UniProtKB/TrEMBL annotation:
One of its GO terms (biological process) is methionine biosynthetic process. Belongs to the AB hydrolase superfamily. MetX family. Substrate binds at residues 219, 350. It is found in: Cytoplasm. GO terms for molecular function: homoserine O-acetyltransferase activity; homoserine O-succinyltransferase activity. It comes from Paracidovorax wautersii. This is Homoserine O-succinyltransferase.
Length: 376
């Protein structure tokens, strides 16, 4: 059974310098916490979210019994990240559309909605903002930082930007940077959005419309990459949506997989912001800690002093096990303490969000070890 979660907000009047130039001031971060911070503030675990997730990591809202957090199967009392032992923090990234300051909020310099004028933010900017929020909470060092996919990139970046503030980093289904194929998928999704007639150069708020067609297509493209071919074949195969005979139509929804993708696209376009999608996929594209070191990941990770746990999934072709092994090798080259698990799971990239006894067992055992170190 899930516990009750309560969103909280902190405002920051001071300017946050951004990696791409300029700064952001008078911004707000939405966050949630679960469990209790111990006397010496040593049991804090930061959970970093992926593209379309948020600070609502676990639990349910009191007035919404079906509002489970996106990683509720992982975090909570008695779960792999046990909130009876850890104080868990989820923070919504800047530029998101789930409570933290983003493109749909007012620009304090103009009094107008940011829209397309919201500055480009990077993984490094998110980590800096998270560090400021932890300062406000009185947390100087994290027992662990945990994230999957884009959240895993943030966890990795934490160990490089604030090595002294992280004791353990748990990086799940992630990569040290995106491949050209991944950047290509992101670009096609972005083109779907910006070429939607309702996009209006990113200032669609002024026109009272939403570029839903572009958002639907972007989500459909993304969803294809999150699933494995085996899962799609097992779940849908070549089943037709209605009846046993094809209609031989170029316009109708014929196959079950088409119906599923359109459903996912429709649902996504009702709650996600188009400018947020552009911002977050760009942050994915730009992340590359080895870039400043001539592409040498070993040199890039030399700053990290944390102990690491990395997890990958065999059928995840978007963030393949080979990408996790690149990180493992670079850390071992630096003689860092690294554990690695490669889980044989059929679910593709989405596996990091699903119930899998082996996966949860690995994470639970690692966090149990951390708790024992803390005497929690």
């Amino acid at each position: 059974m899930s516990f009750i979660a309560t969103p909280q907000f902190l405002s920051f009047p001071e300017a946050l310098p951004l990696k791409g130039g300029g700064s952001l001031r008078d911004y707000t971060l939405a966050y949630e916490t679960y469990g209790r911070l111990n006397a010496d503030s040593s049991n804090a675990v930061l959970v970093c979210h992926a593209l379309n997730a948020s600070h609502h990591v676990a639990g349910v809202y009191e007035d919404q019994p079906r509002s489970e957090g996106w990683w509720d199967n992982m975090i909570g009392p008695g779960k792999p990240v046990d909130t009876n032992r850890f104080f868990v923090i989820g923070i919504n990234n800047l530029g998101s559309c789930f409570g933290s300051t983003g493109p749909m909020h007012l620009n304090p310099d103009t009094g107008e909605v940011y829209g397309a004028d919201f500055p480009v933010v990077t993984v490094e900017d998110w980590v800096n903002a998270q560090a400021l929020l932890l300062d406000r909470l009185g947390i100087g060092q994290l027992a662990a930082v945990l994230g999957g996919s884009l959240g895993g990139m943030q966890a990795l970046s934490w160990t490089l930007q604030y090595p002294e503030r992280v004791r353990h980093a748990v990086v799940v289904a992630s990569a040290p940077n995106l491949t050209a194929e991944n950047i290509a998928f992101n670009e096609v999704a972005r083109r779907a959005i910006v070429t939607d007639p309702d996009f209006h150069g990113g200032h669609f708020y002024r026109h009272g419309v939403v570029p839903k067609r572009g958002l639907r297509i972007a989500r459909m493209i993304g969803h294809i990459t999150y699933l494995s071919d085996d899962v799609m074949n097992e779940k849908f195969g070549r089943q037709l949506r209605e009846g046993l005979a094809p209609r031989y139509s170029t316009q109708d929804i014929e196959f079950q997989i088409e119906s599923y993708l359109r459903y996912q696209g429709d649902k996504f376009s009702d709650y996600f912001d188009a400018n947020t999608y552009l911002l977050i996929t760009r942050a994915l594209d730009y992340f590359d800690p080895a870039l400043a070191h001539g592409g040498n990941l070993t040199l890039a990770l030399a700053r990290a002093t944390a102990r690491f746990m990395l997890v990958s999934f065999t059928t995840d072709w978007r963030f393949s096990p080979a990408r996790s092994r690149e990180i493992v090798k670079a850390l071992l080259d630096n003689r860092r303490d690294v554990s690695y698990a490669e889980i044989d799971a059929p679910h593709g990239h989405d596996a990091f969000l699903l119930d899998d006894a082996r996966y949860h067992g690995v994470i639970g055992a690692y966090f149990n070890r951390i708790a024992e170190e803390l005497g929690a």
